[in-house]
Design brief:
12% strand; Rossmann fold; 249 residues
């Protein structure tokens, strides 16, 4: 498989696309997603894990909000993984992940994920290289274990440009409705842009090639949302699920 180089992948929507047309298409995808999620829940055959990763301000929160706005909340759960709390630090790094894995019929969204446990220690140099290498191998085995047990995995890397990140950080500082989102980590990640991209590239290229990452151009929010929604709809359609003849849980 050819290695992915993030610097060669555009972060913007193609110029020829019509923004309003794609916004309308997202509305259509919302209707499809609602129906497919209802079927997914009723069939109780698979579970679905959706992972969102991206540098600070790449739009993980807003993507989740916009793409899943039409979904029945009984069939979807979302978890945001921040720095581990004291209780989580008393366990191994995957303990908090295991608590949130989806049951059959459910869609579980991870805003950040177990990949943070490779990304952060690599950037901050808090773990030796051999331990980080072990985490790559374990995560590959973990994802394949889920796949073999009917948990489907979709992984989205929200790919924004350095200039777009700088603009969004400034927006957070200037907008009273967004300022609560600002943290010093935003600036730190901007200062270490190259380091973050290098580690993300390695994660994308090394982790579970049979469960490939979708690299989502995320400078244009309307295009980002369309790409993510269409990928989820396509994945659910491929299952060719049918409603059960009777309640199966």
């Amino acid at each position: 498989m050819k290695k992915i180089a993030l610097e060669t992948i555009n972060t913007k929507a193609p110029d020829e696309l019509d923004k309003n047309e794609y916004k309308q298409e997202l509305v259509n995808l919302h209707a499809e997603l609602f129906s497919l999620q209802h079927l997914f829940y009723a069939s109780h055959t698979y579970s679905l894990l959706i992972v969102f990763q991206g540098i600070d301000t790449s739009g993980k929160d807003s993507t989740i909000s916009r793409v899943f706005s039409s979904i029945n909340p009984l069939g979807v759960q979302a978890t945001s993984f921040k720095a581990p709390c004291d209780m989580e630090l008393e366990h191994d790094y995957m303990w908090r992940i295991f608590q949130k894995l989806p049951e059959k019929g459910m869609i579980q969204i991870f805003n950040r994920s177990y990949y943070e446990d490779i990304l952060v220690p690599t950037i901050k140099k808090t773990l030796p290289d051999n331990i980080i290498e072990q985490r790559y191998d374990f995560i590959n085995a973990f994802e394949n274990h889920l796949l073999n047990n009917k948990t489907l995995i979709l992984k989205f890397f929200l790919h924004i440009s350095k200039s777009e990140q700088k603009k969004r950080i400034q927006e957070r500082l200037n907008d009273p409705l967004k300022k609560w989102k600002y943290s010093d980590e935003d600036v730190k990640s901007s200062e270490k842009w190259g380091d973050y991209m290098k580690v993300y590239e390695r994660i994308i290229n090394r982790c579970s090639p049979e469960i490939p990452w979708a690299i989502v151009p995320a400078d244009n929010k309307w295009y980002r949302d369309y790409i993510v929604a269409s990928a989820i709809v396509e994945e659910l359609k491929k299952l060719n699920l049918k409603f059960p003849s009777k309640k199966n849980r």
